[in-house]
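User: These chains co-purify. Model them together.
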Amino acid sequence: MSGFPKILESTQDLSKGQISTLISMAKSLKEGQNTPFFFDQDKRPFLATLFLENSTRTKTSFAIAAQKLGAHYIDFDVSTSSLKKGESLEETLLTLKYQGVNACVIRTPNSGELAQFKKDPPLCIINGGDGTNQHPTQALLDLFTLYELGLDPQGKTFAIIGDIAHSRVASSLVDLLTRFGGKIVFCGPKECLPKSVSGPVMLTESLDEALELCDVIYTLRIQKERHTGPTPYYDSYHKLYGLNLQKMQGLKKAPVILHPGPVNIGVELSKDLVRSPFYKGYEQVINSIYMRMAIISATLGN
Amino acid sequence: MSGFPKILESTQDLSKGQISTLISMAKSLKEGQNTPFFFDQDKRPFLATLFLENSTRTKTSFAIAAQKLGAHYIDFDVSTSSLKKGESLEETLLTLKYQGVNACVIRTPNSGELAQFKKDPPLCIINGGDGTNQHPTQALLDLFTLYELGLDPQGKTFAIIGDIAHSRVASSLVDLLTRFGGKIVFCGPKECLPKSVSGPVMLTESLDEALELCDVIYTLRIQKERHTGPTPYYDSYHKLYGLNLQKMQGLKKAPVILHPGPVNIGVELSKDLVRSPFYKGYEQVINSIYMRMAIISATLGN
Amino acid sequence: MSGFPKILESTQDLSKGQISTLISMAKSLKEGQNTPFFFDQDKRPFLATLFLENSTRTKTSFAIAAQKLGAHYIDFDVSTSSLKKGESLEETLLTLKYQGVNACVIRTPNSGELAQFKKDPPLCIINGGDGTNQHPTQALLDLFTLYELGLDPQGKTFAIIGDIAHSRVASSLVDLLTRFGGKIVFCGPKECLPKSVSGPVMLTESLDEALELCDVIYTLRIQKERHTGPTPYYDSYHKLYGLNLQKMQGLKKAPVILHPGPVNIGVELSKDLVRSPFYKGYEQVINSIYMRMAIISATLGN
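Assistant: Joint model of the three components:
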């Protein structure tokens, strides 16, 4: 795609036109229309993943997407690398570049760490999640999923439920949804909500209020493995903010439920709900491959 | 192969006809006759390995088999995955399925863990060893090796020597050998023998008796790395149940020796024996690739 | 290449003619002239890496080189393998051989460990660095880089600066450079210099003397992560032996600087120097791929 950024750090790096083109590309790829996104056998590019935080799910998704496009895939194993001996991320990326890697998906625990490469990226970079800042490929696949489900964000209300204040997914998603005409209701316990909001976004601690207002529910993963001390809100989370099939069947509307995965079954969502037609999380997983194929193709084709 | 099970949990999932077909397929693949088991370049399936117990040897064998067939290969790295954060195996397999993985080889320390998927497997599953229960691909490659060596099990006696009570290889192997007409002698120290046996199987603590009766010797790996406390039988194992070249040359018959590997050289078998024509363990390694190619091809072609 | 050794343990395993042929092959590969080094799609060999010491950089370089040639690539994960349970390296290599692996790149902390395979290698072996002994592929790519820079070693003087006494890179490099007519100046603190030298090699503790004499500077990595006790020479290293842009600009000649990487920026070399035209380390990284492609091709084509 002409003009596609060499580094995709944030959803804000993309114009609405570019986002719509990515969605069209992902749709074509899902429908099996290959041309012209695929790489020739004799010009196969190399895509690398460099994950400074664990995530087998996202890494596997990029690995499959790259290989389906005909690219070579390399996982740069951080645990055995010079990064562990103090080499800077910049030097590591320069090495990958000169070794012939064309694009690198980076996940890092440090919010904003990729901003240093915006001016002059050593190679194509795709942000695979940076701290609590941004997770643009997740939000793009979520938006693609909404269109696939016939849910154009224009004029619709999205309840985002959970630890919003610390969620990079929420940051990227809210940017996309509001730019495409959606309204947002953030819902969760007080310590999980941002202090202030702007634009078409409201806050509520009441799950019932959020459910009444929304057309679509987006639940966030409660990161229980990060809780070490007392967890006042976690222990009561399912009771206060968790959803189950009975609760959903009692609503006047029948909003679909998205979740970036992996779900803590029995915390954010009950097992019967995950197995019901309300839950569209598996559609997100399917679409993750096609949206990431589109992003890789656009990044490498620029 | 029409009717091939979507999940291969146990050798008992296969009919004798299906087993014979697998052996024919493996033989054709070994002889370089490709058609029609290979995957087209534009329809390359994805095979994943998901190993909850370490085994580089078996994992590498499946990786090579998959790639020789033209499939994409993905190792799902359990150590960095959501499984470590409490996600269920079922949810992980659903994610792999919806990401586009067609078949998954699973190794697990939990005997019978894969039985939960028999009714409605989320994707094709191949048991790569589950606890002390089953290791069907090992037994199938062993049976293939026997036929390659001209040793039809019908009417032959197989001495299985070592820690039989805890061996998943022995479970799978005895099922195959007895269904194809073989007789079994289990041999080892008392604590390594099953309490009772049925069918054409006998027990002995005498190595000399086992050697006298058998046409083929199958030695099992003593898992010395699992011994933490006192190991009364391990310390004397080589003296009482280990084999060396001199002992073999003293026998009236010249039975071949199989071993699923890796051998503890100097424990089950001496180094001179492993380097002698009695030892057919390297034939098993060669055949592991072709049998696993056959199994992958049959699983994905069903 | 006819007569190319099945095991490349040391630069001494290669004749000058073979080295020159490798350089020609690497040059052709870099210029995009494919024939006849590449592997047919239906006869793709398997290259494995088996690294008993960590090095993501070198491993990735071999992985990319193998895949650019059309070979399959397998990383044999030592940490989960039977090697950890006491299996010998020989048995592991025999398993890889019989599984169908054609060549294995081995890195080991044990100097000379690969010598045991010289008489009858179980499969093709490429030394990826063994203890303080040899690192032949690094030295070959360095020599290739010199020719690419128009720096035929004949009659030139090379200052090798750093911990020479413990450097496998230095051992391999000095062999190549002196055989191709170069002269060597070893420079570093006393504890880093060899006790004695022979041939066209001299020793000095004076950086200024080394810089005055040399046409090319080759800096070695100070392995700070290996220092646990007091490090008298490390703490003052940058002051006494480190190079920066100002120092280089003050020299009468303008020698290029090579480094096998990763550089400790601020120790061996300053950041401004690494970003200046003096530094040719990124050329080495580029050339690493083409030289390793040439080595793999020659090894597998013998």
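The radius of gyration of chain C is 19 Å.
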